[in-house]
Amino acid sequence: MTKYIVVSGGVVSGIGKGVIASSTGLLLKTAGLKVTAIKIDPYMNIDAGTMRPTEHGEVYVLNDGGEVDLDLGNYERYLDVTLSKDNNITTGKIYREVIDRERRGEYLGKTVQIVPHVTNAIQDWIQRVSKVPVDESGEEPDVCIVELGGTVGDIESAPFVEAMRQFQFRVGHDNFALIHVSLVPDMHGEQKTKPTQTTVHALRGLGLLPDLIACRLLGHQPLEPATKDKISMFCHVASEQVIGVHDVSSVYHVPLLLQSQGIIDYLRKRLNLANLNITEEWISKGLSLEAKWKGVTKGQERLFDQVKIVLVGKYTDLKDSYMSVIKALEHSAFRVRRKLTIQWVESSDLEPLTQESDPAKYHDAWRAVVGAGGILVPGGFGKRGTEGMILAIKWAREQKIPFLGICLGFQMAVVEWARSVLGVPDAQSTEFVPDTPNPFVIFMPEISRTHMGGTMRLGLRPTVFDRNFETWSKARKLYGGTEKMWERHRHRYEVNPEQVQRLQESGLTFVGKDEKGERMQILELKDHPFFMGLQAHPELCSRPLNPSPPFLGFIAASCGQSEFEEQIQEQLKSFRPPHPEHSMVSEEALRTSTEEHPIANGVGTMTPPTD
């Protein structure tokens, strides 16, 4: 029987449920258990695909093309698993399923209600998805972590809270545990417990009793013993069931913080985990994972040399817009034993218009770019800020500064080359200027043969390395010298095939293409220390113990040529793809499992926001 651990939150949103849920899952994996995770988002959207990055953080893309909440990225990174779009439940998905069933007459004429029909649909969904294998074992998970988004007491999360109340009886007491995350504010040096008492009281009134109370403290001061005892007394739990989670130097220390307070020992007793059949092989894997994780976190504290990266993006106001990019940079910095420093530059601040309207902001932005150890231009949609990206790319190319372009950054590198090297000053993307006379980036929808109207290229896709560049391609070496690699995509626009020969003859080399050779996937410059662009989003598959190859190469090159050569040799010997073996198949096979975006009257109805 699968064990379920629900993680809920009270007092305020954004309290850290995702990191605590992921950390708990990681600790269970170190005990030799197979773990999966589900995120419940109470909003009405079907998925996160149409959300503005500055509204809800980045849109995280899965192998199957699911556009989901960024917390699923945390789960995949911490647990080293591959999830599907069904691992993200939204109110929109549940209501759609219930209404579809009602239209098909499956409720046999009954009045369809929140209780029991919606709450049953939620429970059925969780039970179904919790049985799906997510790791290399191909076996049913032992434990499912369920994160309930939002805050207990919200109107929109009420059906999910009620579903969890019912679910504890459906699966049984020994198979259901609840971790409630609450805020313990510090007022003038005194840790206040009243908010936690109130939210636990509200939770108990809804029929859920917390097994563990994770007290979130905004600061480096740990939870005091007196505060712990007071929460224990007024929230009807034992002292060992109250855990303090204060700010630590890195989120990668949170699992060790939880472990030091006995969370796994408690869950082992509470859920009778000893009765599960855990093989010696998985116990050994768990111990190895624990040792590696401790090695990474302890090594972080002893880093003195730093690597300085400038991120030139469109959504720098909300850093969560680039969550996976930040994590991929961190993972690579761990590997090269450097302290990562990211300087954020709003791309529009580099443009001449800003020089006129706000000279100070303009000069600060350029000062950061000029002093960069490496320049990264990530993905995005819409024209705003793209001219600033092009200027940053030109600086990196001409000054021989390591450069990595992702999706839109890749496309802007092509446009910059066309303008500066080919002498086409009005080279453009049709995304920004539909009737441009010199389109170097064009709309190339991925049309399905079996579904009408798929336009977004979404999910895992293969890239084939061109054998002509095998001897010098840095990208190929970073991927272990393989002939083919797989990364996740999320885009509609691609390099214009009609311009490829012209670009390549002038020195811009496309070392990786799709299986048909029609879509340009990876570009490099041979005579540059590191100048690479990818149409895909390699940051989405980076892991703390297995960093993304392009990001690793970029960080290593930003540290110096000797570090880069060392990492190249290491990758050639030990690179391991993060994807399950069964998912690394042909593009045709992958496309059938990708969730596509429908269009109406030839216009995409689910176009991502542009600014």
Helix tally equals: 21
Give me the Rg, rounded.
25 Å
List low-confidence stretches. Answer: 448-453, 595-605
- What's the main sheet like? 9 strands, mixed
**Broad structural category:** alpha/beta
Q: Fraction of residues in helices? A: 25-40%
Total beta-strand segments: 25
Shape estimate: globular
| Fraction in beta strands | 15-25%
Oligomer: single chain
Order of adjacent strands in the largest pleated sheet: 13-12-14-15-23-22-21-18-19
Mean pLDDT: 93
Rounded to the nearest angstrom, the distance between the terminal CA atoms is 46 Å
Structure description:
- With 611 residues, this protein is α/β, with parallel strands linked by helices.
- It contains 21 helices and 25 strands.
- Strands 13-12-14-15-23-22-21-18-19 form a 9-stranded mixed sheet, sandwiched between helices. A 7-stranded parallel sheet has the order 5-2-6-1-7-10-11, sandwiched between helices. Strands 16-17-20 form a 3-stranded mixed sheet.
- Strand 10 (212-217), helix 8 and strand 11 form a beta-alpha-beta unit.
- Helix 1 crosses helix 11, helix 5 crosses helix 6 (158-171) and helix 12 crosses helix 19 (549-559).
- The radius of gyration is 25 Å and the shape is globular.
